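Weekly modeling sync, notes
Attendees: S.R. (lead), two postdocs, one rotation student

Agenda item 3: backlog of single-chain predictions. S.R. asked that every request posted to the team notebook include the full sequence so nobody has to chase files. The rotation student volunteered to paste the first one in as an example of the format we agreed on. Action items at the bottom.

Example entry:
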Amino acid sequence: MKTIIDTIGNTPLVELKRLNSNSNVRVLVKLEGSNPGGSVKDRAALNMIRSAIERGDIKKGTRLIEATSGNTGIALAMMAGIYGLEIELVMPESSTRERTLTMQAFGAKVTLLDSIEDCRDYAEEKGQTEDYFLLNQFANNDNYLAHYQTTGPEIWRDTDGEITHFVSSMGTTGTIMGCSRFFKEQKNEIQIIGCQPTEESSIPGIRRWPEEYLPKIFDPSRVDRTMDVSEVEAAETARKLAKHEGIFVGMSSGGACAVALKIASELKEGVVVFIACDRGDRYLSSDLFT
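Predicted structure, as returned to the notebook:
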């Protein structure tokens, strides 16, 4: 019989049938909300905690701490509970109520601060004391390795190696760093496209990082093209995905879809894959679907 950990990964890859207007290009979406914790972050959370245990970095009784915009926190809370570890998660106050309640349901302590930068500073300060262990998803190689080992190979397998373009929103950048490494090893011509919010936009889960807060795992040479997406465009596309494709996802997934559709409109032929990183029910208390 499988355990809940065994159900992480091997998420569905499905084709858009109504929003893509270029019949010569296939646009596929990997539904990471199908993971048991509801997002792509289950993969990184499992790999970061399991690898740290295997190395002896954390043991029974270790208290974990992590800054998060939400999905990683939920995944870490779930995983910490499974492994019998205490965890404190530090989130921006703007995070939806559903996220806080979900983390607490998994047994985590939740601390809310003004911004994600404040959260990172707080977690890093506490992580330097003997009382806490900081996983630090922004600088932890086990974050992107989870996607190098699982997400990339699954997409390669499910497209029979025909993927030509990969689109991912960028937060910690673990997904795009890991998948880029894997895809370039299979076929260097595959184009890697990262999405970030426009200057004035706020899109939960992804950031246009100030230079001093750029994730240490981010290597710009592994992204062929970076495209901006506005808050309005990301929200409108998330609503269209639900209404016309039956795909219920959050705003950052809407942003990745908007970019994937732009890429598709530029091509004569190809297979464009984008990541839908979580589910829409995590945003019902926000104005995303009202």
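Discussion: group reviewed the output briefly. The radius of gyration is 18 Å.
Action items: rotation student to repeat for the remaining queue; S.R. to check formatting next week.
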